[in-house]
Protein 1
Amino acid sequence: MSNASSPNTPALPKVGFVSLGCPKALVDSEQILTQLRAEGYDTAKSYDGADLVIVNTCGFIDAAVQESLDAIGEALNENGKVIVTGCLGAKKDADGDDIIQKIHPKVLEVTGPHAVGEVMQAVHKHLPKPHEPFIDLVPPQGVKLTPKHFAYLKISEGCNHRCSFCIIPSMRGDLVSRPIADVMLEAENLFKAGVKELLVISQDTSAYGVDVKFRTGFWNGKPVKTHMTQLVGALGELAKQYGAWVRLHYVYPYPHVDQIIPMMAEGLVLPYLDVPLQHAHPDVLKRMKRPASGEKNIERIQAWRAMCPDLTIRSTFIAGFPGETEAEFEYLLDFLKEAEIDRLGCFAYSPVEGATANSIDNPVPEEVREERRARVMQLQEEISKKRLQAKVGKTLRVLIDDVDRNGGVGRTYSDAPEIDGVVYVKPPFEPHRKLAVGQFVDVRITAADAHDLWGAAE
Ligand code: SF4
C-alpha cells in the first residue's frame, strides 16, 4: 500500500479503521477518515500495519454490542493501540459504568457517536503526526481564517433575488441551501473545537430552505425542517450545551423573522439582528428591487423591540441610489431618527459593473452621494452615542478577543467581529485572574463613546 512518502520523507503514521453499525455510523466513519486524510494520516489495511486502530461501534441491539466488543478485543490483541468511538462508546451498564472501559480497560480513549473532533483529539494525543510542509495539504489545526474562538457558518450559497445594484446572483447563481444535518454537524464540530461564537452567514439567511421546499432532514435522530426558524432553534439548543453564542447575519425581514425574536428574548441565540434594509422609501426600494418592502419596517422594528427589549439591530443603507430625490433621502433620515438602529453602515452608491441599477434614470452625482452618506453617518453618530450611553452602569457579558498588559478587548452580544464596536476591558483586581482570549467575562460598563465601550471585569 502506498503511503505517499518519497525516499526522502518519513513514512506517514497509519491508522487502521473498523466501521460497524448503521448508515449514520458509516457517515461518522467517513468524516473521521476524511479528516485523517486531510491532516495527512495514512490508512492501514491490516492491524499489524497500523500504528493505531479506531473502532467505530454500534450499541443498538445485543448482537451489535457483542460484535463491537469482539472487534475491540481483536484490535487490542492484534495491535494494542485502540481508540473507540460510536454509539457503544456512550452506553453504560446497569451499574452506570462505561461498558467499554469495564470490559476493555486497555482502550486508549472512548467517545460517543458524531465525535469527529474528539476522535481527532485522541488521535493527535496518541499518534501525533509531525508536520510535513511539503506533503501536508492541510495544517494540523485545519484551514481557518478566523481566531479559534469564533467561526462563520455558511448555511447557503447564492440568492434568488435580483436587487438592481447587486451582481451576486449572476456570479454565484440561485439559492442553494445546505442540508440541515450538514450545517448542524459543522456547528457541533466547531463548538467541540472550542468555538465560542458562531456567526451564521449566507446571502439571505431568512430564505434558508426555500430552494428545497423546506425539506425535512434529521438531527440527533429527530426530524428538523430546512427552514430558518427550525435551524435557529436547533443551533440555539446546541450552543446552549457548549455555553456558546450564535449570531445571525443577513436576515431579511420576512414575516417568519417575527418567530425568531422570542428565541432571542429567551437567550437561545444572541438578541442581535443584522437586517440589511438598504433604504426606507418605498419607491427607492422598488427601484432597488429589494425583497421585503420598507413600508412596515418601523412597525416591525417597534414590535421586535417590544418582544425583546435588549435587541440590537444592525443594518446597512445606500445613499444616493440612482433616481433618489432629496425628499426620498430625507424620508430615509426621518426613518433612521425614528428607528434608532443600533449599528449602521452606510455606503454612497457605487455603480458595480453589470448591475442593472446603472441604467436607472437620474443618477445622483458623486459629490451628492458622498454628501448624503456623510449626513447619514452624522445622524447615526448621535443615535449610536445615545444608545451606547444607556449601557453605562450595566454589567454585560463580554467575549474577549485580544489581551495585552493593560487588560483586554472584547465584544458584547451587540458587536459582531470586524464590523461593530468593541469593549476595552480592565482586568479583575486579583493578579491571578488574567483575561484570556476566548473567555467570557462579565464587565461593568463605565464609559461609552459613539462606537465603543469601556469597563472593568467583575
Ligand atoms: S443584495 Fe439582493 S440580489 Fe444581492 S445577494 Fe442580497 S438579496 Fe441577493
Protein 2
Amino acid sequence: MNFCSECGSAVVLRVPAGDHLPRHVCPDCGTIHYQNPKMVVGCIPEWEDKVLLCRRAIEPKYGLWTLPAGFMENGETTLEGAARETWEEAGARIEVGKLYTLYNLPHINQVYFMFRARLLDLDFQPGIESLEARLFSEAEIPWEEIAFRTVRATLEQYFRDRRTGSFDFHFGDIRTR
Ligand SMILES: [Zn+2]
C-alpha cells in the first residue's frame, strides 16, 4: 500500500502505539490500514461415486483442474460463499454439508475452508471462470493437473476417507505453493 484509501496521502510503515507489528499508517488522517489473511471457501460437490471439478479459464493455473472455491465476500457466510463459488464456477446447485478441511497458508496469508456438498442435479455448466466442469471418479482424477495444493490435499483426504466411510474434519498447514 502506498496511499491512504481514506484521504489519498502517502502512508508510512510503522508500529502503532500499543501494537506489535508494523502497519501502514496515514500521517494525515491517522487511519491505520490493517491487512489480515483472506478466507477462501469452497466445496467437494459429490454425485454418487464422483466429484465435480472445474478447469480454470483464468490465471493463476489456467487450464488446470480445481474444486469450486474462491475468496469469501463481505456480508456472506462461509456456507453461502461455498455455494456461490460453486454456482459461479460450475453452474451447479448444491446442498452444502459439513466443514471437511481447513488449511492455513501463512506464506500467502490465506485460510481455506472446504465443505462437503451434495450436487442436487446434473444440469451444471461451466461459468465464465471455467473452461469445463465435469464429474470424475477417483480413478479419473487428473492428479498431475490439479491447480492447488489445498485442492489436492482435500481430494486425497476425501478418497482416503471414502474407503473407511468416516469423514472426520481435517486441518493442517500448507507452506508451499
Ligand atoms: Zn489518510
